[in-house]
From TrEMBL:
PANTHER family given in the database record: CORE-2/I-BRANCHING BETA-1,6-N-ACETYLGLUCOSAMINYLTRANSFERASE FAMILY PROTEIN-RELATED (PTHR31042), CORE-2_I-BRANCHING BETA-1,6-N-ACETYLGLUCOSAMINYLTRANSFERASE FAMILY PROTEIN (PTHR31042:SF131)
Record's keyword terms, sorted: Glycoprotein, Glycosyltransferase, Membrane, Transferase, Transmembrane, Transmembrane helix
Domain of life, per lineage: Eukaryota
Subcellular location: Membrane
GO CC annotation terms, alphabetical: membrane
UniProt-listed Pfam families: Branch
Main location: membrane
Keyword Membrane: yes
Transmembrane segments: 21-42
Descriptive protein name: (wild Malaysian banana) hypothetical protein
Amino acid sequence: MKKQLQDHKSSNHISSRLPTLISVSFLITFGFCFGLVSSLYVRVSFPSAQTKQILFRSSPPRPPPSPPTLSPPRVVQDRSFVGKQGIGQNGYVKPRNFMHDMEDEELLWRASMVPRIRKLPFKHAQKVAFLFLTRGNLPLAPLWEEFFKGNEGSYSIYVHTDPSFDWSVPKSSVFYGRRIPSQVVRWGTISMLDAERRLLANALLDFSNRRFVLLSESCIPLFNFPTVYSYLINSTEVFVEVYDDPGPNGRGRYKSTLKPGIEFKQWRKGSQWFAVDRGLAMEIVSDEKYFPLFQRYCRPSCLADEHYLPTLMNVRSFWGTANRSLTWADWSKGGPHPARIGRNEITAELLQRMRNGSACSYNGRTTRICYLFGRKFLPNSLNRLVRLAPKLMDFGGS
Ligand SMILES: *[C@@H]1O[C@H](CO)[C@@H](O)[C@H](O)[C@H]1NC(C)=O
Ligand SMILES: *[C@@H]1O[C@H](CO)[C@@H](O)[C@H](O)[C@H]1NC(C)=O
Ligand SMILES: *[C@@H]1O[C@H](CO)[C@@H](O)[C@H](O)[C@H]1NC(C)=O
């Protein structure tokens, strides 16, 4: 453009001044318009980092919305509208979409919020959250279906499974749509605890969840739902094992790099399979002190899943644990893993033994019900369990 102007300048000598003025102002106007249009164009096609983020956030990959209802629009206090569109109670109390687009950091932060007013301003069911930490599918799902049947409203289910696993569950299943945004878990590493925290955090988003039980794909219920529910909901204590194992599989797994945050004498062990209340679940997802230490120093493998929670309970002096796991396992064969139970091992007598244990303390009294769940059941045990459940465990068979 500069060159063009110069050309005009040089042509001044031979032409009159008026046409030159016109062409110069034309060029200026044209240049201005071109600049304006092109800057607008650039803005539209290349949004800034900020707008990009907003665009991305507002369209997460959500499941398709439920079809609109045909009832006439109401003007008065339509709370579902507020919950969906803006700041409203329902967004917190009854999250409509189970899936979310939060990263772990965002999820844990969101889940760590505690209302300071204790009394809830709405009616709510007290639910037990069943957290399934699995590698792939749930081979014993049909038994669990029988267990949950007819108890809708008293439980929530959350499944964490390998992200590469093709999770397909029929719409009629209680497990339908209950898979949370999951990540790869390598057994024995800290990624297992990441998954447990992810499960807890997802379940904490629902205020109705009052108790949180961790289960695996090889777990079975030993009693019917009402028994399990009332045992958990009515318990004045949480169920986390906390003990000091002086051997190589206990103290031997302590890493001195954990000092000074966690001293050798504070190191504890316990079963991974916990049942906790909201308060402790909240402490676990919001622990900014000890969890990062485990992340950094509990490696290569120090089996954080057996040590993190018991050690946290100990260093923070959390009392109020029944100091036992509710999940039965057969350790009689020795070794680092409990025995697997297949079709041929299952007998009525074995199940009775799990259900009717030795004396355990419950809310200050003694009970023979020490375990509500059992592991590790192989997939081939399913048919036998489904057949025995109505007679022995008082559920199913309808
Ligand atoms: C909890 O215990 C109380 C008193 O023993 C009982 O009335 C109530 O039904 C129990 N709640 C559940 C959910 O079982
Ligand atoms: C839990 O029980 C073990 C014995 O099994 C005991 O050594 C330990 O001190 C108990 N822990 C708590 C916190 O009561
Ligand atoms: C549990 O075991 C004890 C002792 O073996 C027995 O007396 C009791 O009847 C059993 N209870 C049930 C419900 O099976």
